[in-house]
Amino acid sequence: MRKRVAVMDLGTNTFHLLIVEGLSNDLKELRHDHVAVKLGEGGINKGLIQPAAFERGLQTMKSFQQYIEYYGVKEVKAIATSAMRSAANGKDFIDQVKAETGIRIETINGDSEASYIFYGVKASDVLSEATSLILDIGGGSIEFIIANNKQIFWKQSFEIGAARLMDKFHQIDPIPADSITEIHQYIDSILPDFYMVAGRYNIENLIGSSGAFETFAELSERTKGNEFDLKKFKSYQFDTADLINLTDNLIHSSHQQRLNNPSIIPVRVDMIVVASIVTRYLMQKLNINKVCMSAYSLKEGVLAEMMS
Length: 308
Fold this sequence. Notes:
The protein is α/β, with parallel strands linked by helices. The protein has helices spanning 51-70, 82-86, 90-101, 110-123, 162-169, 177-190, 192-198, 212-223, 240-252, 255-259, 271-285, 298-307; strands at residues 3-10, 14-23, 26-36, 75-80, 105-107, 132-137, 142-147, 152-158, 205-209, 235-237, 291-294.
């Protein structure tokens, strides 16, 4: 029996809706929306969803509910992550969405988030027997997962997402050198547990899960004059020199230069800077020079669980 399911990944920056039908090994995508809700805007480090962001989120959930009804979907899962976890009024948002749309939002902890991301990345066939570091740079949190294609060795979520880092360190554009140093020092102060564990494994690859890495992939291809349609890629292997070059350019670019670049979606225009800094710093710190992108992430992991 072919079933129809809807998955919503309600992140700090973007709300995603994915509606599919079929069997776990034969899925047909009926609809895939991503809306730049910016739930963390103006309040991410204060632990509050601001009124304008609250309203944007609510309207987006109402439109998602209309699509769910249009496609006659009976099985629905809505997952909320870092911004909703840490916001004092996160429960108010969840209650209002339930009252106005009937959608029940489930807030998951960082550990569950990392597990779903692993299963999503695994479904993109990018993992091998080699030990990889999966990195999911969200707006509110970053998930670090050390794994291979068989198992997770270690995973943890840290509340150092791009929206939080931007709010703390990226007030001047282009970002000054001393702000970059401050980001490096801040990351080091948060990640000693990760560094200790990472030292025990021979990590060969860095796998960036969707988000900023999709933009890196698109920039990489378009810089070479190639067309790029993300829907055609489950994964993308970077040329390391290209990646270093394009992240350098992003880090030193102005807001206007990024805004004028059609390969950077509006919600990532500013956050791509801190995402570039984090990626580059971890590559350097862990001495990793093989990087790839998985187009699959949390929602595909949730989907895999629903279809199994």
